[in-house]
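Subject: Protein record for review, amino acid sequence with backbone structure tokens
Why sent: The fold of this protein is of interest and is recorded here as tokens.
Enclosed: The protein record, placed directly beneath this head.
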Amino acid sequence: MMEKGAAKDFDLVGYHDLEERPAFKMAMQVVRGRWYLYLGHFWTSGWSIVDVTEPAKPEYVKFIPGPENTLTVQVQVAEGIMVTALESPGNIAKDLGSGGRKVGAGEEGVYIWDVKDPVNPKRVGHFKTGSNGTHRNHWEGGRYVHLAANARGFEDHIYVIIDISDPAKPVEVGRWWLPEQWSAGGATLTRRKVALHGPAYPEGNRAYLGYSGAGMVILDISDITLPRLVSRLDVHPPLGSWLACHTVLPLPRRNLALIDSEPIENYCREALNYAGIVDISDERDPRLISLFPLPEPPPGATYKNFSERGGRFGPHNFHHPQKQACLEDRDDRVYLTYFNAGVRVYDISDAYLPREVAYYVPPDPKIRRGPRPEALVVHTEDVLVDKRGYCYITDQNHGLHILRCTI
């Protein structure tokens, strides 16, 4: 068991070092009563499978090597199909560091896998963008995968929809972009960063997109071949880095959406990075109605605030239920990773007054596994919560922490 970190209403249940391969995004499926976690790696190209049926004793099943010189940080599983993103390291090397990979080489797009045999994935399809690949995608089952994809003739990631009804022959069926991204048509950006960070989160005949410096985007996808703009909500300035809208996560039962930015600079050398709640009851006029309170250092901390701690401080990834029966699906509670502030839990039963109710900050890593962050402090990346209540978090230089919120 790893040394316990600073905690409020969290128990450390289990830990696995993932054979010294830090992970990023996670996905889960349950097959014949066993719980399998799938992880995309940060500094190593490839994916891991961990059996977490007994969370206190996670069992490492296998590592699946990925293509050389390729970022493989994103992974999703639904209906016995796994979709893994492939991206050129050069595409986000300035953000993540190359990790020793040769910039500009490698594979791109998405791999499509059959994981009905949960411990022996079989690659059955490959969709290529014809450019630098995909970043954060959305796959919840059904016919379509929603991609944040690079495409020839466009600046940075746009929204691309592919049909995988035949997983061996994925085909593009629709795309959407902001006009200033169409570089082949002579357009130029009016802001530093205009790109779909992803995921494009579908809900009924709408899709909700975090579009970096262009803010929150709501699209009508009733015609999947021709998405149409419903509305946009700008947040930067004054809020956030140039990645001012990282994620939009709709809460349809409440006509709300969660929204956040991602910090880029160390020591908070940018505008306030935020997480908040948007009222989408009038989808043509979405309104930011509240901001989450900033995390405070735990008792006894040697730093007066997380901004001066080193590394990045600010929100990153929400737990996404993605309509998967094995995952927790609540719209009154939010799990959110916060880089050097670990994972934070918020009660949002009152959307106008979100409250932090629990946190877990892992101990700082003692061994560097990758080039980031510059200061060797905890950098909690992703969070996934299963329907049993177990919470899984990843880090740039740690393995897998398995937690349980006690409230």
Q: What stands out?
A: The longest strand covers residues 23-31. The longest helix spans residues 89-96. Confidence is low (pLDDT under 50) at residues 93-103. Residues 6-405 form a domain with the Methylamine Dehydrogenase; Chain H fold (CATH 2.130.10.10).
